[in-house]
Amino acid sequence: MIYNGIDFDTYFKNYPDQNGYFGKYGGCFVSEELTKAMQEITEAYFTIAQSRQFIAELRRIRKEFQGRPTPVSHLERLSRKLGNVQLYAKREDLNHSGAHKLNHCMGEALLAKYMGKKKVIAETGAGQHGVALATAAAYFGLECDIYMGSVDIKKQAPNVARMKILGANVVEVTHGLQTLKEAVDAAFEAYANEYHDAIYCIGSVLGPHPFPLIVRDFQHVVGEEAREQFTEMTGHLPDAIVACVGGGSNAAGFFSGFLNDPVEIYGIEPLGRGPKLGDHAASLKYGTEGVMHGFNSIMLKDENGDPAPVYSVASGLDYPSSGPEHAFLQEMGRVKYDVINDEETIDAFFELARMEGIIPAIESAHAVAYGMKLAKQMSHGSVLINLSGRGDKDMDYVIEHYGIR
Ligand SMILES: *Cc1c(COP(=O)(O)O)cnc(C)c1O
């Protein structure tokens, strides 16, 4: 399918290019020392990870440990209530550890094992990526250092406990604002010193090349399964698909199964409390081009051009940029990016729980809210939503801040 001059038959061969660019977005903006480390990972990825043995082992792990394939569910009662459009959900909430993140963490940790590394290193904000990577590290018997700001450590006690139970070493970052940005810097610094024995495992389709490529490819399983399952269930493709976008990993993997199909694709960013800078994390909608954390993309900046403060009710979506591939797909018009605010998200959170018996992650509830909106606007057809994770982690927060609706 040719769309806006891009041939989506050969898209995955051409994007990103050899230097990690999706059009003008992406690249590898790191120190000389880290450039060597990135080249080592890139080389390993294109040899080891494409080998028959690696692919077979990852496939077996996905089935026997992660519990894949995750199902596609028809949201029958919710669809009936909204009108004539049929809503479906790809159930990443049923992936082991409760979200899509384990898909790329298992791939990254398996790559570490094949490369002979002894340790995986990462940063975490809300702790979800830290828990997923600690899970993978325990499975493969790798050491695991997770860098986390002091403020986040206090706020995210249950995830800190999970990481420790899984055997990870949580390294407290005590400088600056003591949150995600400082944790990223500290983790990269540690990696520059340790890359002979360790590998950095990024949490989304972000960071310097080759991470946006690697994470998308390890998440491709979501889109591939969803397309096959949906067409088997219904005999046709969905008219539209929807996923939430923070860094953009669940969306990138899910979308990658449908880019070459006549399917409308929607990526949903968090509008939080509203469009004022600081009240949201809708970077693709309100941001401008810029380089941060080693890659060029669309980002939200403050008056000095630094990454701006962001906010969302969903802690997994509050990042001031999105992966370079999303910036590119937006520019090409292949994916439409839109926003959902906190209120709509919480409504959708309860609606899915009450109508379908599924408590979604607040991140995923952004996609559910948009799917419900589409269902009301369309006269017929079908919408497939990527339910990126389960809401167990969010229940205390929702009850405390919103009560029972
Ligand atoms: C982390 C997280 C997200 C956001 O990350 P992406 O890279 O944008 O997918 C979305 N949903 C859940 C459940 C998460 O844990």
Description:
The radius of gyration is 20 Å and the shape is globular. Strand 7, helix 6 and strand 8 (143-149) form a beta-alpha-beta unit. The protein is α/β, with parallel strands linked by helices. The chain has two domains: 24-62 and 101-211, Rossmann fold (3-Layer(aba) Sandwich), CATH 3.40.50; 68-98 and 219-402, Rossmann fold (3-Layer(aba) Sandwich), CATH 3.40.50.1100. Helix 10 crosses helix 11 (249-256). The strands form five sheets. Strands 5-6-16-11-12-15 form a six-stranded mixed sheet, sandwiched between helices. Strands 9-8-7-10 form a four-stranded parallel sheet, sandwiched between helices. It contains 16 helices and 16 strands. It has helices at residues 11-14, 32-47, 52-64, 76-82, 101-114, 128-140, 150-155, 157-165, 180-194, 211-234, 249-256, 283-286, 324-332, 342-356, 362-377, 395-402; strands at 2-3, 6-7, 21-22, 25-26, 72-74, 86-91, 119-123, 143-149, 169-173, 198-200, 240-244, 264-272, 288-292, 295-299, 336-341, 382-387. The protein is 45% helix and 18% strand. The chain binds pyridoxal-5'-phosphate. The site of pyridoxal-5'-phosphate has 19 residues, from helix 11 and helix 15.
Quickly describe the structure.
By secondary structure, the protein is an alpha/beta fold. 45% of the residues lie in helices and 18% in strands.
Q: Could you name the CATH class of the largest domain?
A: Alpha Beta
Tell me which CATH architecture of the largest domain applies here. Answer: 3-Layer(aba) Sandwich
The tally of beta strands, per DSSP, is 16
Order of strands, widest sheet: 5-6-16-11-12-15
Largest sheet properties: 6 strands, mixed
The helix count comes to 16
Task: Categorize the overall geometry.
Answer: globular
Report the average pLDDT across residues: 97
Q: Report how far apart the termini are.
A: 45 Å
- What's the CATH topology label of the largest domain? Rossmann fold
Question: In which range does the helix fraction lie?
Answer: 40-55%
Chemical compounds bound to the protein? pyridoxal-5'-phosphate
Structural class computed from helices and strand pairing? alpha/beta
Roughly what fraction of the amino acids lie in strands? 15-25%
The radius of gyration over CA amounts to: 20 Å
- Residue ranges: pLDDT <50 for 5 or more in a row? none
What is the count of distinct domains?
2
